[in-house]
Amino acid sequence: MPLNHSTDKAFNPCLVIPCYNHGSTMDSVLQQLAAFQLNCIVVDDGSRKETADELDRLTTVYSWITLVRHRQNQGKGGAVLSALREAQRQGYSHGVQVDADGQHFLDDIPRLLAEAQQYPDDIISGQPVYDESVPKSRLYSRYITHIWVWIETLSLSIRDSMCGFRVYPIDVTLQLADRVPLGQHMDFDTEIMVRLYWQGTQSRFIPTKVIYPEDGLSHFDVWRDNLRISWMHTRLFLAMLPRMPSLIMRHFKDETHWSQTHERKGLWGIRLMVKTYRLFGRRAFNLLLYPVIGFYWLTGNRQRQASEHYLQRLKNYAADQKLTLPAHLTSYRHFMRFGEAMLDKLACWLGDIKLDQVDFPDKGQCLQQLERQQGTLILGSHLGDLEVCRALGELSFDVKINALVFTQHAARFNQVMQEINPDSNINMIQVSSWGPEVAILLKQKLDDGEWVAIVGDRTSISNHHRQNEQRIIWADFLGKPAPFPLGPFVLASVLRCPVYLMFGLKPDGKFRIHFEKFADPLILPRENRQQAIQQTVERYASRLEHYSLTSPLDWFNFYDFWQLSKPEEQPSDTHES
After folding, report:
1. Residue 6 class from Cβ within 10 Å (0-12 exposed, 13-18 middle, 19+ buried)?
2. pLDDT-based confidence at residue 228 (cuts at 50, 70, 90)
3. Rounded to whole angstroms, what are the CA distances from 157 to 150, 154, 182, 203, 566?
4. What span, in angstroms and rounded, lies between the C-alpha atoms of 370 and 16?
5. Residue 70 DSSP SS3
């Protein structure tokens, strides 16, 4: 049965608070909420007389409260649903669930509402950031629930299913509650999020502080609620089994350009990986790789096909050139190498990879360039992992490296990097397209003696219109023309600085860094500019081809590299949309 979407009505949120014997904290919570000028529906879930009397008093103090009463306690889930039904009756589109015990950082309500207004059909949830007050038993139990939820959804998209600080799209939520009996107690928050995911409602998360006051009142019954939660996970797991085909098919999407594909991991995942890595070490992570990579290999249809396409093209080209490739080049091993590279990133972020673990044939040339203390442009790629070049920090040159990325998470990634390694000299800079403002920013960095790293092997698409594909140029790569972006090469010529190629590879189980001069500076003369650009890109493509033959499984472009976003587009010498 099709669902009514919240976008059918104007965005009109209210607050909903389930209350059970929280009379001592309600006044403080309402005082904080008054600043947001939102009407509030409070459900007295069968509280004792002291709380009931206090709620009666508060309704005379705060005129924007609607009080709903349960004669008997129905549990947190029952109270939230009663509040949402009353909100729907009053014409509200969204309900902001707030706990009555004062744990939530209510100043984040505008952030949740802004996200809800932008994505009105999604459930918006707080993602807890705890201080030292959190009981360790509660913290560890959350991780157990996280794992169960990932299994029940066959997805890592639900980052936290237990936080009671969230915004519900009311119509969609109540349609689900009318069709399916939901847990009414501490199992409610998790179950409704999983079942909303099953029906196609996405979850979005806003990091928010959560505290556990010393005198806080918790209604969590260790035995009873843990049994409820265990039974809930049993129900959800059994209900997930017949849904497995449809859940897996969510990963089988139509081909899109790489820049329109969302990353399959988040910064929260990086934090979790780092904590696990520090606790259990690399060996434990290596064991986890097999089921995790196996899952992504099975469900990542588009990425798997791209891997197989690349490897077959590589083998055909090597055969034509009478070159010998390493044995057992399969898409599964390709995926596994990518997983190992993620662990190598962790080791690099934590400073665990030292220079004596790296084969560095071009060390002398790199030292000479570092000694000049001159702004330098590093032209990289998605072949290999430049993270291993962090080991160059041992060369005792305090050089800051600025990496340009086409993501929307550069600032938050920098924050996580500072948490992991405060001495990190890598700074991510987010860009959406190549343009004069990017050139001005990078020129300042280079004038200050910093290094700038950009990649030259990915085209990008404007976020607004497919027709705005940036200018590209075609160059032979592994025997067939492939599209390369003009932006990095034109930018390199404008910046008038030394340009070096750098590749961090792991061809035989040992790290190897290649550092070679590309131009000093890169000159594109006006009289034969097009020809010079073509030759420059072809020279870059030739070096990329050389190193991909040297270390084939280090190719981390998991999309069809030889076509643009529209399969019907035919290559030409220069393409501009």
Report:
1. buried
2. confident
3. 8, 9, 21, 7, 28
4. 59
5. strand
C-beta neighbour count of 221 within 10 angstroms: 12
Number of residues in the chain: 577
Burial state string for 262-292 with b = 16 or more CB within 10 A and e = fewer than 16: eeeebbbebeebbeebeeeeeeebeeebeee
- Could you write out the DSSP letters of every residue in 268-319? HHHHHHHHHHHHHHHHHHHHHHHHHHHHHHHH-HHHHHHHHHHHHHHHHHHH
Cα 105 to Cα 5, 127, 214, 267, 463: the distances in Å are 29, 11, 16, 21, 33
Q: What is the mean pLDDT of residues 475-496?
A: 92
- With tokens 């992991």, the residue in question is 420
Nearest CA-CA partner of 393 in 360, 424, 429, 363: 424
Does residue 72 carry a pLDDT above 80? yes
Q: Is 61 exposed, middle or buried (0-12, 13-18, 19+ CB in 10 A)?
A: exposed
CA angle 311, 312, 314 (to 5 degrees): 65
DSSP class of residue 486 equals: S
How many other C-beta atoms are found inside a 10 Å radius of the C-beta of residue 32? 15
Query: Could you give the CA distance from residue 42 to residue 20 in angstroms, rounded to a whole number?
Result: 10
**CA–CA separation, 388 and 353 (whole Å):** 7
Contacts of 515 (CB under 8 A, 6+ apart): 360, 362, 363, 365, 366, 500, 501, 502
**511, pLDDT greater than 90:** no
How far apart are the C-alpha atoms of 307 and 560, rounded to whole Å?
Answer: 8
- Round the CA-based radius of gyration of the chain to a whole number and report it: 28
Q: Angle 523-439-454 (CA atoms, 0-180°, nearest 5)? A: 80
3-class DSSP string for 354-420? CHHHEECCCHHHHHHHHHCCCCEEEEECCECCHHHHHHHHHHCCCCCEEEEECCCCHHHHHHHHHHH
Answer yes or no: is pLDDT of 153 > 90. Answer: no
